[in-house]
Amino acid sequence: EDAAEESNISAELIAHRKRLVDEWNAWRKRVKAEVAEERKLLGEKVEPEAEKEAEEKEEIE
Amino acid sequence: MRPILLQGHERSLTQIKFNKEGDLLFSCSKDHVINVWFAHNGERLGTYEGHNGAVWTVDIDSQSRFMVTGSADNTLRLWSVQTGKCLYWWEFPTAVKRVAWSEDDQQVVCITEQRMGHSSAVRIFNIDREGDGTNQSKEPGSMFNPIGSKATLCSFAHVPNLILMGHESGKVALFDAKTGDEVLNNERAHMDVVTDLQLSPDRSYFITSSKDKTARLHETKTLTVLKTYTTETPLNSAAIAPGKPYVLLGGGQDAMSVTTTSARQGKFETRFWHKVFEEEVGRVKGHFGPVNTWILTAVFNSIAISPKGDSYASGGEDGFVRVHHFDESYFRAKPYGDLEIEE
């Protein structure tokens, strides 16, 4: 009986951990994609300005 | 896992940091100096002298070219890592408690202490990386005074122009670097002083430690608490291990309370916790020498993990830095089976 109960607990624990890992991995995937997207958008915003500055500099020289 | 003991500071360590490659370890101390060590053998490579007060904080850029430090002498200093020369310094009305580089090495953020009629200030400097580094502008690119409880920790968040802060009240908050507006906060991230704040490699999440005896993992963008690690001692530092699903927590009681409690109660350890399961997986005792002689006990003020994930270091109240190289069993161990956990 004890052994049966123990194996039950461990099966529950394993299932619980599996669920935690699945949640974590799903969150990581979502956040990685979000951060990549945000950085891409910021990069696009920043680059034209940088190019403009470079052009202005050339004209002065 | 026997530690290498790095002896070279005369007083309590305040912060330790690996460079990006993980081959160099930087330590700063109340003894006014910063030391740099070879991480693999603990040999001292050099000392940076110039501060006239306790050095509270250190950070190294991703190229290991420039180092910034902040001190109780009210200065922020920029150093050449290689030559050991102080290239530039900025002076403020109060002590510099925390410094950090931006991800692109172009900016430095620092926070000064609230004291004697001076409110705490966050300044962001644009660093001129051309030439030898001595040509810096005296004025910050932007500056603001964080509102509410005393702020003590700062870092650049996951996107540019967003500053992540830790406060004495237990609050964590995001501030707009340009306007100084508080963009988002979690007033009850901790119930007591936030003592350390370290980001994941992609800055999308971070760990905090607190005197409230817990460490917590937060999502940077939303400040949502993802995980809580509850211990039985106040924590001074916390770090996220690369390559393994662990977080490292360090702390212990301060020297005053140690004298009034038994050695057994004084727990001076680095604890390894499973990042996802919130379960403790191991402890490393904070002493050095034969196992049965308790030669040194130390409160760990700062913990850092090598970006390579092969070693970690702790800086103690006793003035020693301990470097622990993980042995094979650490890499082999899968205490919870074959579940694949995303970094």
UniProtKB/TrEMBL annotation, chain B:
Component of the eukaryotic translation initiation factor 3 (eIF-3) complex. Component of the eukaryotic translation initiation factor 3 (eIF-3) complex, which is involved in protein synthesis of a specialized repertoire of mRNAs and, together with other initiation factors, stimulates binding of mRNA and methionyl-tRNAi to the 40S ribosome. The eIF-3 complex specifically targets and initiates translation of a subset of mRNAs involved in cell proliferation. Gene3D superfamilies: YVTN repeat-like/Quinoprotein amine dehydrogenase (2.130.10.10). Signal peptide: none annotated. The lineage of its organism: Eukaryota, Fungi, Dikarya, Basidiomycota, Agaricomycotina. This is Eukaryotic translation initiation factor 3 subunit I. It is found in: Cytoplasm. HAMAP family: eIF3i (MF_03008). Belongs to the WD repeat STRAP family. Belongs to the eIF-3 subunit I family. Its main location: cytoplasm.
